[in-house]
Design goal:
The protein is an alpha+beta fold. Helices cover about 50% and strands about 15% of the residues. The longest helix is centred in the last third of the chain and has 30 residues.
C-alpha cells in the first residue's frame, strides 16, 4: 500500500500484503538503484538562486525583506535555512524511488527541536511545516543530510567527521524505517521520542560537561512558556497588559497603524480569532474561550520565513498571572507545489496543520488555521496558529562538536523516519533502503555536492548585496 496523504472521502486505498509491499520496494531498487541518489549536477537551465529569492520577496512585507537577506548572510548554513525554494528546484531533477509520504519540505537540522506534549512531557520532533506536502520521502532525507554536512563544514569539522555526521544521520533513518516496517500500525502511531529517557540512555557516551550542558539547555527550554514570554514581551500600562514595542522585530498594532484605525482593526482581529477557534476541536475551543484577547503585534520570525505576515496575540486567563501567547503565521503555497502539483487543501493554513498532525507524534493543543478574505492590506491570506512558546527549545548548532552533532543527527534521522512511516508505505520504503549502507553512502556523496552548490549560491547572494542588486539589513 502506498499512502500518499492526497486522499479524499471517495479515495479507495489498496491494502496490499506485507510480501507485496516488500516486493514493491525491491522492484523500485531495480528501477532507481540506490546509488543513483548520489547524483547531483546543476541543470543548465538552473534558475539564478538570487532571482528565486527575489521572486519569493514579491509577496512579503517589503520593509522586512532586507532583514531576511541579512539573516541569510550570517553563514552558509544560515543561507541554506532560507533556501528551501532553491533546493526544491534542484531536488525536482534528482532520481525518485516513486514512493510518497507526507514531506516536511524543509527538513534541515534546525527545524527539529524540543517542546511540551499535552501530557507535559518534553518531546523531540520536527517543528516547522510551512512547506509540508505529500512528496518523495528522499527529498526530506537529502535536505536533512545536506544540512548536516553544511553545518559540520561551518563548524570547521574535519572531512572524515563531516562524513560521519551524515552517515550516522542517514543510517539512523534507514534502521528506524526497518524498525517501523515491522511494527503494527498503532505502534507506529504511538511512537515518539521523549527527551528524558533518551538522555538517560545515551549520557554514558558523552563527557560529563556535555551532559550537563544538555541538561541545562533542557531545563531552560522548560521555562519557555507564555509566562516567560509575558515577562519579556509585555508590560502593564494604566492597568492594561500590552505587548512592548520592539520595532522592527515586534510591532504592536497601536504602533503599526494610526491611532484612529488601531482600535477598529483590533476589534476586527478579535472577530478573526473567534473564526480561528472554529478550526479547533470542541474541547480546545472551550479552553481558548476562557482567555480574553488584550493585544496584537506583528512579529518577525525565523530566517526563511522573514517577511511573511506573522502575528502574536496576547490573551489573559483568570488574572494577570495567567497569560497565553498565540502565534498566527501566514501560510503561502509550499515551495514543493511548483514541482509536485497543488495541495488538496485550498487553505494553506489547513495544509500546514494537516501535514503537521500527520508527521508529529504530538502537536500543540491550539494548532489551527484561518482564511482571511481581506486583511489590513486588503489581500486575502491564509494563516495557521499555535502557542508562541510551550517549552520550545532548539539545539545550538554552532556550539556542537563532532560527537554531539553525530548524536543529534541520529535523533533527527529516527524522527524523520517515524514521521514518514505514519503516512508513507514504511514496508516498501524499508525494503528499498535494504540492510546495507548503499543508500547511506550515496547520500553522503549527494550532500558533499550539494554543500558545494549551496556555498556557490551563498556567494551569489553576497555578491548581489555588494553590487546593490539586493539590500540586506544585518545584525537584526
Amino acid at each position: 500500500m502506498t499512502a500518499t496523504a492526497r486522499r479524499t472521502p471517495k479515495t479507495v486505498v489498496p491494502h496490499l500484503t506485507v510480501a507485496e509491499r516488500v516486493a514493491r520496494g525491491k522492484q523500485a531498487r531495480s528501477e532507481v538503484p540506490r546509488s543513483q541518489h548520489a547524483e547531483y549536477e546543476p541543470s543548465p537551465e538552473r534558475p539564478d538562486p538570487v532571482a528565486l529569492l527575489q521572486l519569493q520577496a514579491l509577496t512579503r512585507v517589503p520593509e522586512l525583506v532586507p532583514i531576511r537577506y541579512g539573516r541569510m548572510l550570517v553563514s552558509s548554513f544560515a543561507f541554506y535555512r532560507g533556501a528551501a525554494k532553491i533546493m526544491a528546484h534542484d531536488l525536482a531533477r534528482t532520481p525518485r524511488s516513486g514512493m510518497i509520504a507526507q514531506s516536511c519540505g524543509d527538513a534541515h537540522l534546525s527545524n527539529f527541536g524540543v517542546f511540551a506534549s499535552p501530557e507535559r512531557r518534553l518531546v523531540f520532533d520536527i517543528n516547522d511545516f510551512d512547506e509540508t506536502l505529500p512528496g518523495p520521502w528522499e527529498w526530506d532525507v537529502k535536505r536533512l543530510a545536506a544540512s548536516m554536512l553544511i553545518a559540520a563544514r561551518d563548524n570547521g569539522f574535519a572531512a572524515k567527521d563531516q562524513d560521519r555526521v551524515v552517515l550516522d544521520t542517514v543510517r539512523s533513518y534507514r534502521l528506524a524505517m526497518r524498525e517501523f516496517a515491522g511494527m503494527k500500525n498503532l505502534e507506529v502511531w504511538y511512537a515518539r521520542l521523549e527527551v528524558e529517557p533518551v538522555l538517560r540512555q545515551y549520557q554514558s557516551q558523552f563527557k560529563p560537561e556535555q551532559v550537563k550542558r544538555t541538561q541545562r539547555a533542557l531545563a531552560k527550554a522548560q521555562t519557555r512558556d507564555s509566562m516567560s514570554a509575558f515577562s519579556k514581551l509585555a508590560q502593564s500600562v494604566n492597568g492594561r497588559a500590552e505587548i512592548v514595542d520592539q520595532s522592527p522585530l515586534i510591532v504592536p498594532l497601536r504602533v503599526l497603524l494610526p491611532e484612529t484605525e488601531a482600535g477598529e482593526w483590533f476589534e476586527w482581529l478579535r472577530q478573526r480569532v473567534r473564526q480561528f477557534r472554529l478550526s479547533l476541536p470542541h474541547d480546545r475551543r472551550v479552553l481558548l474561550e476562557e482567555y480574553q484577547l488584550t493585544d496584537f503585534a506583528r512579529k518577525v520570525v525565523g530566517v526563511g520565513s522573514v517577511g511573511t505576515r506573522a502575528w502574536i496575540a496576547l490573551f489573559l486567563g483568570r488574572d494577570g498571572t495567567d497569560p497565553l501567547f498565540l502565534q498566527l503565521k501566514e501560510a503561502e503555497a509550499s515551495v514543493l507545489e511548483e514541482h509536485l502539483g497543488p495541495s488538496e487543501f485550498k487553505n494553506h493554513g489547513q495544509r500546514v496543520v494537516v501535514g503537521q498532525r500527520l508527521m508529529q507524534a504530538t502537536s500543540d493543543i491550539f494548532l489551527g488555521w484561518i482564511h482571511i478574505k481581506a486583511g489590513i492590506d486588503g489581500v486575502a491570506r491564509d494563516f495557521y496558529g499555535r502557542q508562541l512558546k510551550d517549552w520550545k527549545g532548539s539545539a545550538e548548532i554552532e556550539q556542537m562538536v563532532p560527537d554531539g552533532m553525530t548524536a543529534y543527527g541520529r535523533l533527527c534521522g529516527w524522527t524523520l523516519a517515524r514521521a514518514h512511516a505514519r503516512s508513507g508505505d514504511r514496508v516498501a520504503i524499508a525494503a528499498y533502503l535494504g540492510g546495507g549502507n548503499a543508500f547511506d553512502r550515496a547520500i553522503v556523496e549527494f550532500s558533499r555536492a550539494y554543500a558545494d552548490q549551496n556555498e556557490s549560491d551563498y556567494k551569489a547572494l553576497r555578491e548581489a548585496v555588494d553590487s546593490g542588486r539586493v539590500v540586506a539589513q544585518t545584525g537584526i
